[in-house]
Design goal:
Elements: H1 2-18, E1 22-27, E2 30-35, E3 38-39, E4 42-46, H2 51-56, E5 61-63, H3 70-80, E6 83-88, H4 102-119, E7 125-132, H5 142-157, E8 163-168, H6 172-181, E9 187-191, H7 199-205, E10 212-217, H8 238-252, E11 260-265, E12 288-289, H9 290-300, E13 310-316, E14 319-320, E15 324-328, E16 332-340, E17 348-355, E18 377-378, E19 384-388, E20 394-403, E21 407-418, E22 427-428
Parallel strand pairs: 4-5, 4-11, 5-6, 6-7, 7-8, 8-9, 9-10, 10-11, 12-21, 15-21
Antiparallel strand pairs: 1-2, 2-3, 13-14, 13-16, 15-22, 16-19, 17-20, 18-19, 20-21
Helix pairs in contact: 4-5, 8-9
């Protein structure tokens, strides 16, 4: 029995010895994150899948939004030499949580406490992420105090890892609460897309001088993109998105490294949000996209040897760079894509037709993917197809995936089917193409 007791104590001491000592320090007007005494700049992916690809691309950290499968995720990260910003989901008022309900708030507090006690000594843990976008569409400012109370508790239980929290973008109004209420939060996380270029300016204007991270970033959000005349958002091609990742990392993340200690590209995975291609860095089948090539260059300084195919342009009914169309029902339209592969690999084409999604949510809430429409595309495995418009009036979206057998480029084009003959110009040309440069 004494031998077993000594073995258990030894195992605990070894585990404790493996705990990373993480600190954030200000020196020479520059904030730096340290792990076990060494500077650590976050090259992160928001997500918990395809971690081997993250490591190969030069990434060093992942971010979670909750503690589901936390042990498995932490263990896998540790094996790969990755760190984890372990998130705890703080309930949202817009989902029905009442921050005036003291019992509910106390229960949430206890649940976080249990999670901290369970995972605080894991060697892959980098920091705690206490909540994500809980201020989105809210009215009860008591949530800020609840978050700070949790952060105080985390510091008491775990002196080795910083605390962070995340808001949906930032503003002078939000910064007032961040500065006044979140006194126990060490690092401010900001989710931002097209507005990323204004973040540092807003922080400076609001007098925020502490460290921050860009905790979600990527292409233009669907809410900030140009729209068709019938109100549907125009999605950038995978090639346009790759340019966004490269430009935004260079100009608005790495360039602000005196205060910004790193970032998490979104989404290191795939999801249905507005479309099934909008935010994922991978396809539904797990294939990587061109944005990962751009991130590899940002993180390692070199592109991967096998480059992703690129989309040059798309022609609809003879008009190049068409962004959308308005068609009569049961009419035929020729659509051609111009794509290339920098390695000279043979390209494969896969066209798919869907009704426009109507299950649209906010804040990344789960959405259902529409059901694919079959039988309307001729030669759907080639660069040029004939699309027969659906019988029913409505809103639709045509998708194309271009693959070199391992990596995928994509483009989609929304169109509307109306009764009778369209009265106006049916196809919008490249006048909207400037949206990929903001």
């Amino acid at each position: 029995m004494r031998f077993l007791t000594l073995t258990f104590i030894f195992a605990l001491s070894v585990m404790h010895a493996q705990v990373s000592e993480v600190a954030i320090r200000l020196k020479d007007a520059k904030w730096t994150l340290y792990v076990d005494g060494e500077p650590f700049y976050i090259r992160g992916g928001g997500g918990t899948v395809n971690l081997e690809q993250l490591k190969a691309a030069g990434g060093n950290t992942i971010r979670t939004w909750g503690i589901e499968q936390a042990q498995e995720i932490l263990d896998q990260a540790q094996k790969l030499g990755l760190k984890v910003m372990l998130g705890y989901w703080i309930q949202h008022e817009r989902h029905g949580f009442d921050y005036n309900d003291t019992i509910a708030v106390q229960n949430q507090f206890k649940q976080v406490r249990d999670a901290v006690l369970k995972y605080k000594d894991h060697p892959a843990l980098l920091m705690w992420g206490i909540g994500n976008e809980y201020e989105l569409a809210y009215s009860n400012t008591a949530v800020w105090r609840a978050v700070n109370d949790i952060a105080k508790m985390v510091h008491e239980l775990d002196p080795h890892h910083p605390t962070s929290t995340v808001t949906a973008g930032t503003s002078l109004e939000k910064l007032k609460f961040v500065k006044k209420e979140l006194t126990a939060i060490d690092i401010y996380g900001i989710n931002t897309y097209g507005d990323i270029e204004t973040v540092q300016e807003k922080l400076d204007s609001g007098g925020y001088t502490r460290p921050y991270m860009i905790t979600e970033w990527g292409p233009n959000g669907h809410w900030e993109s140009p729209k068709t005349p019938w109100g549907m958002s125009l999605e950038q091609t995978s090639t346009e998105k790759a340019k966004c990742y490269l430009d935004r990392y260079t100009n608005y993340i790495a360039a602000n490294n005196k205060q910004c200690i790193g970032s998490f590209a979104f989404l290191w995975g795939q999801k249905q949000e507005y479309t099934h291609t909008w935010y994922g860095l991978f396809t539904e089948k797990g294939e990587s996209t061109e944005a990962i090539d751009a991130l590899t260059f940002c993180w390692k300084g070199v592109y991967p040897e096998n480059r992703t195919p690129q989309i040059d342009s798309l022609k609809m009914d003879g008009i190049k760079d068409a962004k959308f169309g308005v068609f009569s029902s049961r009419t035929k339209h020729q659509i051609t894509v111009y794509a290339r592969d920098l390695n000279g690999d043979q390209l494969n084409y896969e066209w798919e037709l869907y009704p426009e999604s109507t299950d649209l949510k906010m804040g990344g809430d789960a959405e259902l993917k529409p059901v694919k429409i079959e039988g309307r595309i001729t030669k759907k495995n080639s660069a040029s197809i004939i699309l027969k418009s659906p019988n029913l009036e409505g809103k639709y979206r045509l998708f194309l995936l271009v693959s070199d057998a391992s990596k995928v480029a994509y483009v989609n084009i929304p169109f509307q089917v109306i009764a009778g003959k369209p009265k106006a110009v049916t196809i919008k040309p490249a006048v909207l193409n400037s949206f990929n440069n903001d």
